[in-house]
Amino acid sequence: MERLQKAISESGYTSRRKAEELIRNGKVLVNGKLITEMGYQVSGNDTITVEGTTINREEKEYILLYKPRGVVTTTSDEKKRKTVLDLIDTKKRIYPVGRLDYDTTGVLLLTNDGELTNLLIHPSNDVEKVYVAKVEGILSKDDIIKLSKGVIVDGKKTAKAVVKVEKVDKKNNVSYIKLIIHEGRNHQVKKMFESLGYTVIKLKRENFAFLNLNGLKSGEYRYLSTHEVKMLYSLAKKKKA
Q1: Which architecture does CATH list for 129-208?
Q2: Residue 112, Cα to own-chain centre: how many angstroms?
Q3: Could you state, in order of their start, the residue ranges of all structural domains in the chain?
Q4: Stretch 44-58: mean pLDDT, rounded?
Q5: Which of 27, 58, 190, 208 is the most exposed place for a label (fewest CB within 10 A)?
Q6: Between the CA atoms of 65, 71, 76 and 78, what dihedral angle is there, to the nearest 10 degrees?
Q7: Are strands 104-111 and 199-208 parallel, antiparallel or unpaired?
């Protein structure tokens, strides 16, 4: 048994907070009966209808994918490009947690757990993300400091970041920079470098929270353990608190 609002949020229909609002406003039925009680308990056999739609309460699935280049982080693509779902053999209705650009590689989490997804991508959450960027040009010390303190992206300053020069190739005029951020803005890493006049040639996300690519090759995936899922929930709720 679990609380009604949790069952709704875990289905991916909406967040738990919005589910509570829908219950209070008389928008939720359980087995055809109107429910407005916030602590109402439901089982896996109960039929839940929200705003006229019966929600899907399938078994939860959590997958860590090593996203390759040339794949879009969507469930479908109007240009008929390969999507991350094309790489995974599952009948579950999973979806990506956040995005990686078409040409960006690395750690990508996919799940059908709407509650965890909402927790991880919530604006107040600052889950650590580690990127390694191959950048055209040799970064100056001043620019490294600027990146670490925050730069203006889309009219708003980014949060502080950890910046480390991994390698400098003066012959080819490129730098390899490790960047640790806690935000998730659109194209953020590329835009951070672009704000200082540098072009990102390649970008890889090596870590999402404590999840990494160990044991995986590009295009491969694995299922998260129960312990890892619990750790993600614990981390996300702690950050949001």
Answers
A1: 2-Layer Sandwich (3.30)
A2: 12
A3: 2-54, 62-124+211-240, 129-208
A4: 88
A5: 58
A6: 170
A7: parallel
